[in-house]
Amino acid sequence: MEETVSLDEIFQLLKKKWALIVSMMILGIITSTAITLFLMTPKYSSETQLIVQTKNADANINTDKINSNLLLINTYKDLIKSPSVIEKAKDKLEKSGMANITEDYLTSAVSVEQNQNSQLFSIKAVTNDPTESAAVANTVSEVFQEEAVKMTETSKISVASKATPNNKAVSPNKKVNIAIGAVLGLIVGVMFALLGELLNRTVRSEEFVTDTLGLPILGVLPLVAEREMSEIRKLQKNALVNEDLFLDVSNVYENSLHTEIDGLDLDLRMTEQLEER
Prior knowledge:
This protein is an alpha+beta fold. It has helices at 7-16, 18-39, 63-80, 83-95, 103-109, 130-149, 174-199, 206-213, 226-240, and strands spanning 44-54, 110-114, 120-127, 155-161, 252-261, 264-273. β5 (252-261) and β6 (264-273) form a beta hairpin.
């Protein structure tokens, strides 16, 4: 039989399982915080800003020259990450005392950014150390300027601002990671609550039998607490070992035991039929 679940039933289920959902959210926050603080390496960024200008200061600056400089910036972007610039920058950094620098490391650490229709662009370096990031950005900028002079005679590149160490990490973003952990914990908690309900095959109420299964109710057993069940078993055991109950008779007899457990009157009626041996 196909079983349908209404939104109200889902809401009531989630309301009933709120402790599980909140616990999973807290676990997600703790896990994401631990990963961010102890497993993820902080990254630091520094950038050098450069500007493309016309070499001849007395020349009339027109739109064509500006557009030409803007087009050159696209070429400069490729030049900055070219093997010739990266290799010379690597050698220069090694001479300055920075060891274990590879060309692949520099290529991945360096990026070029430019605002649209601006003659100003930036060489950005992102590494695990703020001082190293500044050194990489400035060194690549110096080598690039030397190489760019060989390419054009009509434009020059000037440094607008040099890179300086920035001790504020650009990644990981703690707030974003914690928020992601909370959302993932919430999703996992809701999934566990719904999955647990779907896998629960026990009869939970009379309505489940009549409405969902479409079966009639034949009888309802009262709920007996575990402590009361323990007392009942103890009384039954004592009754079975009582010699007064094992009389040598062949007829049917009844023995009624009456006791009170925590204010609840329980009538225990025992019927036994003994055959003559």
